[in-house]
## 1
Amino acid sequence: AQNPAVYATVGLIGSATPAGWDASTALEKDANDPHRWFLPTITLTAGELKFRANNNWDVSWGSSNFPAGTGLQGGPNIPATSGEYSVTFNDVTGEYFFKNLAPPTVYASVGIIGSATAKGWDESTPLKLANTNEPNNWVLTTYLQAGELKFRANNNWDVNWGGTDFPAGTGTRGGFNLQVTESSYYTIQFNDITGAYNFNKLNPVAYESVGLVGSATAGGWDNSTPMVKGADGHSWTLENAQLTSGEAKFRVNNNWEVNWGGTDFPAGVATPDGPNIPVAGGTYTISFNDVTREYQFEVTSGTTNNIVVLSPALPTADEPVTITYDAAQGVSGLRDASKVYMHSGVVLSGPVGTAWNNVVGNWGQDNGLGEMSPVPGESNKWQITLPSVREYYNLTGGVPAFRLGMVFRNAAGTQTGKSEKDGDIFVQLNPGDFVRFTAPTAAEIFGVSGQTLQLSAEASGVAGSISLEINEGNGYQPVAQLSNSKTINYQYTLGTATSLQVRVIAQLNEKTVTSEKGLTIILRKPNTVAALPAGLRSGINYHPTDPNKATLVLLAPKKEFVYVVGDFNNWQISDAYQMNQTPDGEYFWLEVNQLQTQKEYVYQYWVDGVIKIGDPYADKVADPFNDSNIPTSVYPTPVAYNRTQNGIAAVLQTGQQPYQWKFPKVAGKRPQKEDLVIYELLVRDFLGSHSYRDLADTLTYLKRLGVNAIELMPIMEFEGNESWGYNSTYLFAPDKYYGTKNDLKA
């Protein structure tokens, strides 16, 4: 049994203490243990200190570690950092701890730097927070070479930690370089308060081969494209990989026993047996690590074919770019065309997004907007130079642009040039370092007072710090902040503000990036819940005894609210045109009054503030993109409607006169099945005029051929004007490209 000395007093002395080296600051003895000492609070300055007994130098303890360590009798001075601390000390074990009473410093980032790391002494390799709720605990799995390293904060030398022990120990501010004794993969843990660190050496499985497989690759899902193994045995690369838009995964030994997938593109961390990685077409240098599971698709060229070529190959949104189109490639009706236009938009939703924004082009108009020039000396090649993507598409500063979407056309818009799959052509852009809002996606926000609105933003990589700010009219105020995070969220409560400016700021390495978004808030009333009046059905319900009103009914289960917006209210949202909701939540309905008899009104349903649609039961629609290209000889008086920002809308008209059939009852009888001679007829191709009226005049010709039945290919409203009709959009509305609904009946 030990018989340790019992000291009358133990105190702290040194340049870091209030009394300096002249006198000890006494600690208090634990009433239950004569060898445990504590001090509830002491203010230290940057300097050195030691523990000593009985206020003299006969017995003293020191160490090289702070704020925690084990003191040795006669040991070195303890380096101390300024601050307010509580102190504990055991004079038998020598263990001590200086607990900082001030809130711990939260660093934007903590990393490792040194000859043992991949980036050497030039730049820190960032660690990740072990838990977002613990901003002082850091972790990283990485490969280290035998060499030296230190921990440091914020990628600079103002705050750094070193140590003398490996693989575990306690780091001290400004301490010695840590000596990594063996090259290997390690999981590193570090606490920036206590300085405690641990390097856990891993023994990962070594794979013979790793490859890329999927619909985006040349081998499809059948054969992996092999990657090249790195010197560490676990990093893999694939250079100049030409990928098409599709999906991909990493897998081992060209089979499915071990594979990895992910949801992020172009970079992320894969999971075993994870989902397919979405891939945008392009030429890439691909890297993957089978230990850390980190992957990256680094674009070297934004296209995978020769249909469209960019110069520079991967432009940013802020530099000039020349777009060259080869009309002899892809699905093209523009070979040997005399004039070519580019109809295009910018993709803001992400590197694999397909939705166009800020579209430039007037389809069917020969007005110079998007007009291309022939490339001298090269047949079927056309080009256009943009001053920059941001300027050409009028893109707000700070908003990242990921892709361009485009199709090509002749001056009249009757011939097109598209991808090899007869679709839109997409080319990649270099978005650079960015931060952007991911929610809400709309600029108009509908809600009731007291309802919460989620604001979400993401950075292009893990940000040292990322913060959200809100301006309700009195300047920006911070509302949320995180360290070492790629995303940030905040729940905003709707009140009385009708407009809002939101801003997100992220620190990406040494660069600060910012994005702002303006929101218009429309405070709506709660839905009026009312049963659907008897006798009403989905669509337009006309009132035979009152031609000045119509009741509109929309089936919209699981939707929150619907407005009716149209010519009758000057396309303005108002409480008077918010639709009633049935008690079961399935239907919305509204009676529209003060309509002018026989006047055509164009209208839409605006659902949940984000969906704008015409009435699916309407027998006539207005198409702002295509109606103007229908000859007046076929459809003489289309209703005026040019709201391209809203899209296709429905048309209602009260007081319509019933059609007077020439033969109210069917004359003759249907032929027997065995006697049928059916002619399948596409109005567009059968007659140059594509007119119902002219078709009626040719019935005798068909009869002379022996035809006794006609099967019309789809005639309901379809996308565009020229189609086989199988891309139908409004099933109860005859397409106006063939004539009026009464022409069809004639």
## 2
Amino acid sequence: MTSGHVTPTGSRRKARPRLDLRRLGRAALLGPGTRDRLPDAIGHVVDAHRAHHPDADIEPLRRAYLLAESSHRGQMRKSGEPYITHPLAVTLILAELGAETTTLTASLLHDTVEDTEVTLDQVREQFGEEVRYLVDGVTKLEKVDYGAAAEPETFRKMLVATGNDVRVMSIKLADRLHNMRTLGVMRPEKQERIAKVTRDVLIPLAERLGVQALKTELEDLVFAILHPGEYEHTRELIVRNAARADDPLAEVADEVRKVLREADLTAEVLIRPRHFVSVHRVSRKRGRLRGADFGRLLVLVNEDADCYGVLGELHTCMTPVVSEFKDFIAVPKFNLYQSLHTAVAREDGQVVEVLIRTHQMHKVAEAGVVALGNPYAAPPEEQSASDGERVDPTRPGWLSRLLDWQRAAPDPDTFWSTLREDLAQDREITVFRPDGGTLGLPEGATCVDAAYAQYGEDAHACIGARVNGRLATLSTVLKDGDTVQLLMGQDPASEPSREWLKHAHTPAARIAIQRWLATHPVPDTASATEPAAQRPADDPAAPQAPPAPDTAPDRPTAAQVLADRPGASVRLARCCTPVPPDEVTGFVVRGGAVTVHRAECAAVARMKNSGRAEVGVRWGEGAECRVTLVAESFVRPHLLADLTEAMALEGAEIVSATVEPPTQQQVRHTYTVQLPDAAGLPALMRAMRNVAGVYDVSRAQPPAPGA
């Protein structure tokens, strides 16, 4: 229920018959006139509306006003004003922001279903399904409990109530702004409660939806209620600055106009005063304020290219503060905001901030999604589906994603905490998929976030990623412009790791992981990801490597190699485990035996330097071989069992196995295996790579000299 008005009693509602809307409309006309006459009370609303939409049909507004005025007749706000002044004020706020006719019609009617005998069916009959949907959404929002104890549940109810249409939220924000303007008639404790909810819930929403005009005024109104002392101090600073004889902002504005005029650039240069909260923040950051700190310059041009032309002229003809430059045109903010930010320094050391944008960018910067009109309208043809999120967050949009989160969240507190984190984000990055598509993620997002953004709950099976072509852990923080290839496991039993929560920054990722963990409790979560080599030997759950064969690890395999030294025994060096078709060489060692090394083995150079006799060797045919392989993988349950099974199916006999402790969810396995035929080595390595979680298999490299 909207604060500040008297609601008819329930008994009175039951006693009244169903209203005839046409009769009410005629009765609402004040004095003589025709049905087509525009009531004077909405003249200012129509003027504001036509300033943005010159060809708009105002007939729905006329009929909506007549119905609202008749329905609310006799109701008064706590301020003593007729209640109809409230929907009129809310509608005027939206009209000045550029809202389309349907939104304004619903705004005029937004309290009729809640506070009068008008029904949703009657609204549909007179104004259509779209207006009925918006009025219904706002009516449901009015019923949300904003009490402190219900705070975590507040957003869930709001999102269910609004559905996928941000126009419902736009009406609610304008409704709250007018109520905050007239909050002085409330008790102090109620003022404080409403102000806190506005601060914690509605101001972040206004920021997320890009409605800066509403956000800044709401911030100032909340500031005055919750921090009256600091508000009064800030007001005095602004008053004293306004009384100054000199105005550095005006002087720099004149200089900017001169520079642009000489460069033949058409632009409008305005002084944009800071609002109270902004002045307060600047004073806390910089200490003593100077004249240039109380506002910024706004330069408005017609075309995008002119923005950069203005920037070039200012940086050429004035003294730029390079550290203050930001390009939100090339990289827009998540809430549609686009502008160039820079600053120039005066000779007296004062720094003047300058915002450069087109007139259309300025409209969107002020009104956000309100300026976009109907979110269900087809997007422009030149806008691809992949970049629709950045151009307009209502298609399919941030609000739609929130609806998914609230349905998936295991409990209200989880949803609330993740949502507050998301609302705190003020920058987005764009990363590219290998197929050319894009993912929009908050700054600081990791590969975990990218996985859930692309695959939803199927990301539970993600085992790793490649970032810009290089293998990366799921904890890797992504940068704007990175290319991300997500590696997905084939095991249907794949499951997310509890460790992922440390690296998940988006609500979609955190809620999906928490939901899975809540439905799959594990008594000892550490054992689920602990490599088998680290578990106690008597742990029956630990998959064991096959026992080593009876043959000694260094048994000779002379049948594989032919040496140019008749009668000498031949053995393969364990340091480099050569196999066909490696290039090999031999050396005579103690006892007259010939040891065979790979040609690139570090031991070869040492033996040559020590004067050992080199013996020519070559591979025989169809010989068995022993080789050491290194498998690198991501940690997952049952990996060791799956890997050794794949090796056994290829006929490999495991001589020894070592599993190193995991680091950053990665683990390294080293296996020495005996193969009946060296020709089977490529197939063995392929089979090992095909095991879910394994991302690389290679031959063990000989140690470097001196290692």
## 3
Amino acid sequence: MRTAEFSCAMPRFRFPSVRAWVILLAAVLIPGSVSAEGDAGDVVLMLTANLGGRFTTAIQEQESADPMLILAQSIRHRQQEHPADLLIDLGNAFYPGPLSRYSHGSVMMDFLDYFNYSATLVSSQDLNIGINNLSFLGKGKNANLLSANIRQNGLPVFAPYFISEINGRRFAFIGITSGKGFFDIAEKAVLDVSLADVDEVITDALSALEQEHIDFVIALSGLSQPDNLDLMQQFPRISLCITGGDTTGDLYSVKANRVDLDSGQTIVSLTRSDGFYTLTLNAREKLAVGSLLFDTPVECALEDPAYAAFVGRLSLWKLRFAREGLETVAADLPEPIDVDSRKVADMLRDRFRAEVAIIESHAVIPQTLSETISYTDILRMVANDFPLFTYRLTGGELKKILRDTEGLIISGADDAMIQGYPLADQRSYKICSPQSVYELLAKKLGRDDIDYTNTWRTLSDEIRIDLIDERIMARHDFDYLERRYRFLADLSFSNFFDQSEVNRGDAMDKPPGKPAASYRKWGLENKAVLTFYNRDHMFELTPYIFFVRQDDDYLRNLLRGTLLYTYNLNPVARPYCKSQVDTVVRPVDDLRPVLIRQTLGAQVETDHITGKMGFGFEKQVRDPEEDLFSGIETIIGIKYDFRQYLTYTFGLDTFFAIPQDHFNRHQIRSDISNALSFKLNSYLAFTIKHTWFYLYSGEFKEQYSDSRTLLSLDLATDFKIH
């Protein structure tokens, strides 16, 4: 088993072997609970997991209403009646309870310290408090914060293990943090915090323990059960693995509290968080599990100085929280506001003008806000306080994410569509999400180089600002986000080698902007596509220049402007209206011919093919002015990515035109292009392109054609204004 920074190592699935089925049957059939009172020489551990700092914020009747105080009463009562040797927490103790978050974990650290916990495993949810805060909280406390694999500058941030002597036997407990958590981005950048390889840190810890005369090694693990099995097989020195916090106890779709291996090792899983476990171990030649018993906390009268002192300290935190947290955010709401993760995601799209907002489905606990809202109310319903990031992902990357949205709320993208248009694989889109989602998506995409902007604000901050100001979440319809206009610019600049072969009849005039003879020349071809669009309407303005000058001759001298309007009737078929003007960059013989085309038609679009067919007219309006021709326009575009760096494009633009009263004077004007582009990086591409222009005159029964081959180095970029 291997783990890397910010990754959760997942072994390849293999169908369970006969040995695995035996393990499962043992896990299901072997009784997991007998009396917690062991024989003389037995070791008794009291265990908790996933406490989540779930204190209430009210002082009134807290000793009968606060679940953490009821848990404390039960633990202290059990300790008085049948003392355990050690009290250990398996992780996720500090988050997401509002009082624990408000105190930056301090109130939960007091809980662990006052009630004589020996250690707690630093787990994924705990990291929301921040590495610096957790490290500070652990100073001078009896309760150890354990993690062998969280490192800063290559050194452990927390204690990798702790040692305890019980009944004359020496036990070492090693803490292993799972890869599910996310370090604060500032801590990662400034403090160089990372998650080290599990195999390496266990090897280092066992090596250090060789000098301590340890009898038994116990792993406190947040890894998945398959990873824990690999861990036990790789390190037979570990007698027992206790899992909780980030581990559900699932093994091959079966929830197992206990798995006995034929090596004599055992894995014990804490699958419940609403109470505490008592684990009895037989510590003789080998360490064996005697029993595992779960207790549900119940309220009980307790005379205990430590408990009384903690209640007093907890009350001070609650008073302070009430004093600062009861600040009125919104008063006299005209109507109740239903808030959930979906509405908050929609609100983020609005506030950051993002095309897509992604948050965890559990990030916001559904609430109905009414009348007067305090900051405390906001803290109670928000379960993610990582900073919000904005960043860009390509359409291809978003498609991968949309295939697996379990546990996520995605606003703005659905069924590979954004704002009514299909996702373009190479186009980038603006995303807003908490850091935790950013890290999750980076793992899914296998990228660690996604540039981001840290807003330094959290979901709680944004909800508070929204309730004070715009109250976007009060809306029942967020359709206006789809009607919001965005501006997109695609710029392309090419240097090329141009070889042209021209054939034309004697009576044929040279069309505007076309060469009169064959030539070979280097030149420039520049194009910009400026798009202004929302869900319903799209306007594209495309200026295009193709200009080559040799001495005093203009070998290429085309200036074209196109305005295309498309109504987004549905994703496949859309009506359009197009205006196009062709002229020259520099006058030739004091003449500046101008050819206009106006068409109205329908556009059909699939993943790789776009087709347009329309009716309209074409007319040369000056130098010289000619008759108006009515006709049919056919445009076909094909784009196919053979590889991420290799793209083929095909273009056909044909206009069949006839004057109003003379069919025999019809014209056919056609542009055909084929191109193969090799992408060198995100800006540069090498392109081989062939174009063919054809003009047929029914009046003269003659034709003009222009064939050219281009070898070009293209500079292409785009930007979007949201």
## 4
Amino acid sequence: MDVDKEKQARAMAKAKQSLLQAEIKREEARLNQAIALFLQEKFDIFLNDGFVQSLAPHILKLYRGDQRKTALVLLDKLEKSICDESIEIRERSLMVIMMLSEQVYLNNIRELSAVVARISAKWLYFESEFIAGFEAVCLKLQRIIVEMLSTQQWYEVEQLIVTMNKISNKNLRKTNLIHGVIARVHDKLAEPEVLDIMANAYLSESNQRKDVVENILINMGHQGTRFLVQKLAQSNDKDERLALVDLIPRIGKVSVPILISCLDEEQPWFVTRNIIMIVSRLGDDALYGEVKKHLAHQDIRVQQQVLNCIEVLGGDQMKDRLLEALQLIDDELKAHLVDLLVQFEEPEIEETLLSLFEQRENFSSHMHDFLISKLCNKLVAYPSSQTIQALLTLIEDRQERYGLDDSLVRTATDTLHKIEQNTSGDTISFQNIQENQVNSLIEDEVLAQIPADPADLSAAYSDEGFSNIFVETLTDTLTSNMEKTAVEEQTSSFESHLSQDHHLMVWSGFYERLNTEEANTIFKNLTPLTLKAGEYVVQQGDKLSDLIFIDHGFGEIITPENAGDLVFTPVQGGELLGSGGFFGNQPWPFTIQAQTDIQVRLLKKDQFSGIQEKVPGLLGKLSEFCSQYDVLPYLISGAMDNPDAPEASEITIHCPSAFKGQSGEDFDNEVSGNLTQSTHGGFNVIVSKANLDNLKACLGHQVSAELSFADGSLQTSFGIIVGGGIYKGFPDGLHLHIKLYHPLQEDGFNCSTIHIM
């Protein structure tokens, strides 16, 4: 009996198995029939629920087997059905995509990820209705896209991201529901890890690879833009910053809110400068209002970038913007601004130039003569009675203060002569101008500007522009903690030395870098010393390790005879010497002999060693200041040790008088040279015209230098030729040592042009 039941059970199971297999075959037959209709693009088959449920698993089965080609053909048809005119067919096709996307993501099938991305991009571009399953599919696509970006399937996912970005920015018109979903998904694609991978690839990959990564990065929306701007701000690599400055403007209007936000925040100067550069390249005139806030930025390079923005934007408002900028920018930039303004032939330009001319006593000391000369040259085009009177006033004032041979007397007189020639003598009479006003300039313009009585210290340092209030306040701060007995002892020991007020005025730029404790510490440890004319301040080869702050007086630089045929301007009050020995135990490369009585203050290394632990931040600030301002020994040593190793491209040098060849013949007013050494506070230039008369003719003259930096930025800097000559190691070249008035933050730069004034 039990045996019969067992046989019966086996028979029943076999029958069920047969029925199941028969059903599977019938199902396969139905599916194959449906697939055949689907391949014929009879998409009504999607109205069959069984087909919708079976299509995605069937495609995966074919792909994993040996029928990948058939699977890809079915996906091509699905790409068409999902864009069918029938909403119902699109909805059911979308269900297949949703099921397929889930399996593709879970099983990390790279090739099918690319196909799903392609189909989805086409569908999103086409879809106009918020159909059933829209948001669910988009969320699954989000995971696939992030995974594809992480695995560098950039070519495959590029078009889908571009389409999403167009919808997010409303460049591709969709319903509000579609726009909202896509915008949220698009923002979430910008994961920092993914963006970092792409940004690093963009900054390092080959050009072919770079194109697709660039296109994805500029289509990553607000969050992607924010990441790139932050990377720009944080990057320490100049090449990276330059590449990002070039990339971000291509994002377009999407980047504007992020850029404006950065301009409103306090940033390092180079970040602000780079953001302004990006805004300029966007070419949107409406954004200038955000940029002009930085016309009065404390860093001149930022101011210069704002001026560049004005030039780039151009337009009807350019003149008004330049006029506004003239009242705010640093004096070093005003010469270029004047060149831009004179292009506008309007009466108010003359009024502006004359107004600026009348403000000449307020010009910075190092720009004073250059700016006045520039204005004189430009005023030739405005031969009005006001111009003539302004020039006559300048001539009278300068002649009275500095004599007949003053450089500005000559410049202003030449301007009046040109006006007379241009107007056939109808506008001006020269009866009040003496002929000797056009005598040649004295050779050393710097000495010509020193008052006749060097003991009149208020006049000698009037150009420094430091108020008495500042000096008194700083003096009070520095001396508040000093014991009275110590002050009296110091005063009695150095009765002949200048007052501490004068020292603080001359060195205010240094003390402003220090906090109260640091300033007190430095000042209390300075030793005043007066040297008589003829005495040596220091001699070449000395191991002197003191840091020397010159308060007043002049000293002659004497180099060893075997160094070559060299000349230098005198060292004088306000100059710092000795950092090579103080920080590096280097011997002195030259001798300094007092030409007049010299008052200095010494910071002795052994004393400083005992206090730097108590004031830990002082060493860094002192070292930074010295690296920027004690540059002449560095330039001289560089020329002695390695005189003929140019480190940059050719420089064009414009001179007021013709350079002479080695035999004394006149050569040209424009010669070429090379940059051989650069540092924060100056640089060396070598020219092939090895005639010392060329250097003597321009020694002490101001120069303007066109500098460029590794990040692509440009800057005009001003300085003075402090020395040079024909070094023994390079007898065929003439070295010029140029010291900058305002040291640069970076010590690596290129120089294309130098104008000797």
